[in-house]
Amino acid sequence: MAPLLRPAAERFHSQLDWLDSWHSFSFSSHYDPAWMGFGPLRVINDDTIAAGRGFGMHPHRDMEIITVMVEGELHHRDSMGHAEVLRAGEVQRMSAGSGVVHSEVNGSGQACRLLQIWIEPDTQGIQPAYEQKPFALTDGWTLLIDPEARAGAMAIQRPVRLWRARVPGACTLAWPADPQQASWLQVIDGQVMSPWPLGRGDGLGLGAGDAPEALQVAEAGADLLLFELR
After folding, report:
1. Residues 145, 162: contact at Cβ < 8 Å?
2. The predicted structure's pLDDT at residue 113
3. Which of 61, 126, 137, 221 is 20 to 30 A removed from 96 (C-alpha atoms)?
4. How far is 201 from 10, CA to CA, in rounded Å?
């Protein structure tokens, strides 16, 4: 299949006095049957939340929720008893399972930015679970989510993998995902030059067998997420 490009400017956009949110796929009141997700990947929201504001207590069910903190910090509370602060460089995963209620509030004095990701679980009704970890990003790919929790990664209720790469300048990044699996590449910041020109907020879906051998990152560097989807 041809690569599925989701240009940043064509994403859905929600803007409030405290929230600036870009949705790669249909979300909340934004609906397009052509953009309901990509395989089990259902939500990628790029959220900037104003200081002292956030989402009050609200429920989730039967969804794997991953939060990648890009800038600032976010205060999390949930019905499982967790009260945590998620800081830039950290990743949170929450299995909503049979049901969980939580809040996400920026308790700091500056805006924060995060990517919230929803993935369909392969089993419904499981016991809710929560985990968060800091990840020291190197110049290559860092594994964040892995079914076997390799290299300090976290596992979710779906055999997917997620990497993040934050590189400061021009480089070649070998493709770490299984080329025989579907994948999704999301640009947090910076630019990819080839095999496709991609910039901040762009996303790209690839079918099984369509993965490149490597990505060429532009001189300005890039911050990337890569999903291997099953």
Report:
1. yes
2. 98
3. 137
4. 10
